[in-house]
Amino acid sequence: MKIPVSISESEWLVMKIIWEDSPRTLPEILSALKHMNWSSTTVQTYLARLVKKGVLSTERQGRGYLYSSTLSEAQCQIAEGKSFLKRVYNGSLAQMVRGFVKSGSLSADELSELKALIEEQENANGKPL
Question: Which of 25, 43, 64, 93 has the most beta carbons within 10 angstroms of its beta carbon?
Fold first, then answer.
């Protein structure tokens, strides 16, 4: 299955609710999103779009449906990240990281985490990157 990369910001909010505890019914989803002040119709539209994109599946339950994710949050994050990299940084992760590092916008903790991830990957590959 091709992982969709065009999940809107609002659809991400819906998906986060489903990823937290799946499967979910429409009333459960509406309750979890009540702080958004979206109408039931709006949420149903987002759900229908996500089903059409193949990110959600439905199962009939009584008079309603159970909504389940067909993809993990990590799968969608990776696909979205790759799409972003391609659009903004010509697919170069190094260019993106370099930009953030040089901008001074990374905290000391974030820099330490990046160093640790690089070391971990180097150790896994048995050679420096």
Answer: 43
CA 124 vs CA 113, 117, 119, 120: distances in Å: 16, 10, 9, 6
Residue bearing tokens 């809107």? 8
The number of residues making up the chain comes to: 129
- Please state whether the peptide bond connecting residue 23 to the residue before it is cis, i.e. omega within 30 degrees of 0: yes
C-alpha 22 chain-centroid distance: 15
Residue type, 6: S
Give yes or no for residue 125 having a pLDDT over 90: no
* Residue owning tokens 């903004």: 88
Which residue carries 């299955």 as its tokens? 1
Give 23-80 pLDDT, tens digit per residue: 999 999 999 999 999 999 999 999 999 999 999 999 999 999 999 999 999 999 998 8
* Amino acid letter, 105: S
The answer to whether residues 36 and 16 touch, using CB atoms and an 8 Å cutoff, is no
The alpha carbon of 102 is separated from its chain's Cα centroid by a whole number of angstroms, namely 26
Q: Count other C-beta atoms under 10 Å from residue 76's C-beta.
A: 20
